Amino acid sequence: QVQLVESGGGLVQAGGSLRLSCAASGRTFSRYHMGWFRQAPGKERDFVAAISRGGSMSYYADSVKGRFTISRDNAKNTVYLQMNSLKSEDTAVYSCAVSTAQTMGVRIPLYDYWGQGTQVTVSS
What we know:
Elements: E1 4-7, E2 10-13, E3 18-24, E4 33-39, E5 46-51, E6 58-60, E7 68-73, E8 78-83, E9 92-99, E10 113-114, E11 118-123
Parallel strand pairs: 2-11
Antiparallel strand pairs: 1-3, 3-8, 4-5, 4-9, 5-6, 7-8, 9-10, 9-11
């Protein structure tokens, strides 16, 4: 069992930045691929970014590519999402997730454990 706790959400003006953090419990954090997803009101949960176990590979949704950066610190059991040039359409609840799958991916079924999420609101 892995527990995840997100932090860093809040209200920001369009064009601003936020840095989300996701702290994981347990001693096997470095064995897992990690992902960030988001869900806007009335919409389905969407993939945002993923990072491999060692941090050498990352994937991004086209909508955030060039603006968001995912990173991880395995010594601190934490994954981050740096969000720059925020837009109103980035408003959503952002959740981190753990994937125990062999291959890193973007599909929700690949992810086994989820955090509760943190609200990000971008005002225009």
